[in-house]
Amino acid sequence: MARPLLIAADHGGFELKERLKKYLDARNVRYEDLGTHSEDSVDYPDLARAVAEAVGRGESERGLLVCGTGQGMAMTANRYRGVRAATPFDEATARLVREHNDANILALGGRVLDPALAERILGLFLETPFSGGRHERRIHKIDS
Ligand code: RB5
Q: Which of 55, 59, 70, 91 could be disulfide-bonded to 87 (CB atoms 3.0-4.6 Å)?
């Protein structure tokens, strides 16, 4: 059976990750928390790798990564084949990275994003389907 939504954060994203877990719990969305489990300093590439390897291999359909800005997580995750990590900053972008880019990892910034907006972005990331069509050809070109 496929693994559920995989989530991870570094110390800069720990607080937002914990808040987003409550958001997911309230909506009965299953997830696997791969860490970190405290605000002690850790290196975001280690946490990004745990999620990106599994999503890139197709073990899980989606991942959520949180660090201070979301950027280090996205930079790392996008080095893994098959990963399309996005850092949407508003609701329109959250919808479009799913519809047009078939983003499979959402990277958020715990130190820069309003937490209520982060919840709405996560909701859209999970609910919005990929549009396919001409976008299918374009996302294949990313990997080829
Ligand atoms: C950690 O201090 C911080 O650099 C990290 O959370 C993240 O923002 C990196 O992109």
A: 70
DSSP for 106-139, please give it.
EEEETTTS-HHHHHHHHHHHHHPPP--THHHHHH
Is 71 touching ligand 1 by the criterion CB < 6 Å?
A: yes
- Catalytic position from the list 11, 37, 100, 135: 100
For 82-125, write each residue's pLDDT tens digit.
999 999 999 999 999 999 999 999 999 999 999 999 999 999 99
- Residue 100 catalytic? yes
pTM above 0.85, yes or no: yes
Query: How confident is the model over 48-68, as pLDDT tens digits?
Result: 999 999 999 999 999 999 999
Expressed in angstroms and rounded, the spacing between residue 69 Cα and the centre of ligand 1 is 6
* CA–CA separation, 109 and 72 (whole Å): 9
For ligand 1, whether the C-beta of 68 sits within 6 Å is yes
